[in-house]
Amino acid sequence: MVLYHAISTYHLLNAILISIKNKDENILVCSKWMSDRCSNFKELNKFFKKIIEIDIAYRFIHTEKETSEYFNNKLGNLKNYKEIYVFGSHFSFGMSLVEQNIPFIFCEDGSGLLRREYILKDIDNNDPVK
Question: Looking at the whole model, is its pTM more than 0.70?
Answer without folding.
Answer: yes
